Amino acid sequence: MISPIKKMKMSEQIFEQLSLMIQEGEFPPESKLPSENELAKMFGVSRAPVREAISVLVASGLVESRQGGGSYVNKVQLVNLLDSVALEMVSAEEVYDLLELRTVIETEAAAFAAERRTEEELLKIKAGLNQFALTIHDEQEIGHEADFLFHNEIVAASKNSFIIQTVNNLRDLYKQTLNFSLKQNIGLARKRQQVYEEHLSIYQAIENKDPKAAAYYMKRHLINARIKLGDTRVEALEEK
Q: What is the mean pLDDT of residues 136-154?
């Protein structure tokens, strides 16, 4: 059966070619990828589509950006990982849309959690906060698992079955965007501290059963993440 021909963006083609080069060992584990300028010359394009392709390689776990500059191939079982990664590239706009959806859902979830949480649920949220705190000064730790736990416990405390199911359905994508976002903070202690403080404000509002404050701090936190990733459609919320 013949499949329809797909029109692919330049960045999607670069992503596919780099993924194949990694899979075939041209860029082995722990090797450094050529610079954006070098890749742009190799592919005969500008740096913009190269940068977008590398961003998705980072988000998919194939590549990591390290302190001091440069992108390196991760030490993983690359063939197995590539089998699980859809080679249809997610555009930056789609990442922004997913984070926008998170903002809508989790802002209300935080407000509901502040109204409805039990003491047991508050302890679970606090456990997620404490786990994230342990990652702040570890330069090798991304912190996405602890971050996901914190957010997921808040969603669970909302006691809205549709919110919980929606977030559960998007679980893998949520983790990927968290992983991608938090990787930008590796080696940057102040930025990691800022994320923790944003989490702390959310927790304190939920602890105080203040739904308006919980919604505000959650929205501010997620908007800050979107701005950090380059979403120009939003502006930072003012401090309360």
A: 75
pLDDT tens-digit map of 103-127: 999 999 999 999 999 999 999 999 9
Identify the sign of the CA torsion 19, 24, 27, 29. Answer: positive
Best CA proximity match to 221, nearest among 103, 142, 123: 103
Query: Within the chain, how many helices (H) and strands (E) appear?
Result: 11, 2
The one-letter code for the residue type at 118 is: T
Question: What tens digit of pLDDT does each residue of 157-171 get?
Answer: 999 999 999 888 877
Q: What are the structure tokens assigned to 38, written together?
A: 């070098």
User: Are 224 and 234 a contacting pair, CB within 8 Å?
Assistant: no
Tens digit of each residue's pLDDT (9 = 90 or more) over 37-51:
999 999 999 999 898
Distance in angstroms (rounded) separating the CA atoms of residues 200 and 192: 12
Domain residue ranges in the chain? 10-84, 92-228
Q: What is the CATH number of domain 10-84?
A: 1.10.10.10
pLDDT value for 171: 76
* Residue written as token pair 């993924």: 19
Q: Which position has the token pair 């380059």?
A: 230
**Cα separation, 78 vs 35, whole angstroms:** 21
Residue 215 has a pLDDT of 98
* Other residues' Cβ atoms within 10 Å of the Cβ of residue 173: 16
- CA-wise closest residue to 30 among 82, 79, 66, 68: 66
Domain 92-228's class? mainly alpha
pTM, full prediction: 0.62
As a whole number of angstroms, the distance between CA 193 and CA 206 comes to 20
